[in-house]
Amino acid sequence: MNYCHKHNLVAQSLINIKKKFGIRVTLPTTDTLRNILGENWDQIHWYKNEAERDLAFNKMAEHHGYYRNTDAPTQVLEKISR
User: Fold this and answer.
1) C-alpha to C-alpha distances, 69 to 27, 43, 56, 58, 64, nearest whole angstrom
2) Which residues of 40-67 are buried (b: 16+ CB within 10 A; e: fewer)?
3) What is the CA radius of gyration of the chain?
4) What is the dihedral of CA 54, 77, 46, 59, to 10 degrees?
5) What is the pLDDT of residues 34-73, one digit of tens each?
6) Pairing mode of beta strands 21-26, 43-47
7) CA geometry: angle at 70 spanning 64 and 74, to 5°?
8) CA dist., res. 37 & res. 4, Å (int)
């Protein structure tokens, strides 16, 4: 099968590895994007270790340079473990 974006595929060697540290991304109850995504929308990103998760958390929490000065992203980030 041909894939347009191979970088989005998960390597077969990583499929059965249980990652224990994660970041749950949700939206505040007042965010109007919930009207589109649904009231219970969330996204979870899993990482191999706590250090990798914490580094990703810090990057996700910063105000990136590609936002306009007036943009104020309202995502809620939560560190989780299993």
Assistant:
1) 21, 26, 23, 20, 10
2) eeeeebebeeeeebeebbeeeeeeeeee
3) 15
4) -50
5) 999 999 999 999 999 999 999 999 999 987 777 777 877 7
6) antiparallel
7) 65
8) 25
**Residue 81 CA: distances (Å) to CA of 19, 30, 40, 73:** 9, 27, 20, 24
Output the six-digit token pair for 63.
């105000």
| Domain map (residue ranges) of the chain | 17-81
User: What are the pLDDT digits (tens) for 2-13?
Assistant: 656 666 666 666
What is the H or E stretch that residue 40 is in?
none
What are the backbone angles phi and psi of residue 61, rounded to the nearest 5°?
-85, -20
Cα 59 to chain centroid distance, Å, stands at: 11
